[in-house]
Amino acid sequence: MKKILILLLLLMCNTAFGLMPEKGVSPTTVGQIKNAENASKLRVWSWVGFVSGNDEFDPLHTTKKRSTFIAHNENTDEKTHFVFIWFHGMGGYKQSSFEGVFGFLKWLTNEKELSYTWIMPELPWSANVSHIDGRNAWAKQDSFDLFVKEAIAKAPKLAKKKNIKYIVAGHSRGGKAIANAAKTGGLCKVNPHWIIWSDSTYSRWLETAWNYCLKDIPVFMEIFYMAGTETQASVKRFEKINNSKLVEIEGLRSPWYHGKIGNSAIIMSDFLSKLREQ
Predict the structure, then answer these.
(1) Cα–Cα distance measured from residue 127 to residue 225, given in angstroms and rounded to the nearest whole number
(2) Which band of pLDDT confidence, cut at 50, 70 and 90, is reported for residue 77?
């Protein structure tokens, strides 16, 4: 009887870890996340499913609906909890994307007593979507704010945490998601503490996000870009209108490249030291 009780307790503990997919998510996506998670050997609660604000009917999507990946470490009970919202680049939300994400999660897990949640919405330029050009994330008013609230409600125990610091990061075309979230109002309602641009300042996305609301809130902003590229050109335009002391800009050259920045931006960032001081 004692052995049975011990076994039941072990099973109960294990149910808090490993991927829990919601019905309807692309089986390919579920398999890719599981492969990346198993290779990482991390013990985290993880889930993939549909979250309001990002679950609009999408006729160009494989399953007609975009999903959201959430990973949450329940091993710490620190007073400060960090929530990372990662906007993937063009053709992302596939196994290589999740491998990059679990690389970040391994780094975060190695940080002493760090409590965190990772949220990655599938955007309309994902690997599961056809005809991606010209499409926008967070097209509806305040949809990003709704999405964050609904995503927080999905993660165990997270809704009870009082001191949450939000880090929003966009890699490559993920910069367009930052711009649109600012443009439609949701980004600044979330009140992010830190925003990271991971070689994602194409077009006028950086200036759009700044002018719509980021210039009006006390948010730290870190901008990584590849020197000599289109992302540099937009940063130079931005520097002419930015006078905030909360903005840090770093140009990178070879041996850096676009994908390497995407897999390193969180690790390179200075957010932990500064946000822990607050």
Answers:
(1) 24
(2) low
Angle at 33 between CA 29 and CA 36, to 5 degrees: 140
pLDDT of 161 reads 76
First and final C-alpha spacing in the chain: 51
- Checking if the pLDDT of 9 tops 70, the result is no
- The residues pairing with 163 across neighbouring beta strands, listed in sequence order, are 80
**CATH for 18-277 (3.10.450.50, 1.10.287.180, 3.40.50.1820, 3.30.499.10):** 3.40.50.1820
**Whole-structure pTM value:** 0.92
Give every strand in the sheet of 163-171, ordered side by side: 18-21, 45-49, 68-72, 115-121, 80-87, 163-171, 194-198, 220-226, 247-252
Instruction: Break the chain into its structural domains and give their ranges.
Output: 18-277
- 3 state SS of 229: coil
CA distance 123 to 177: 8
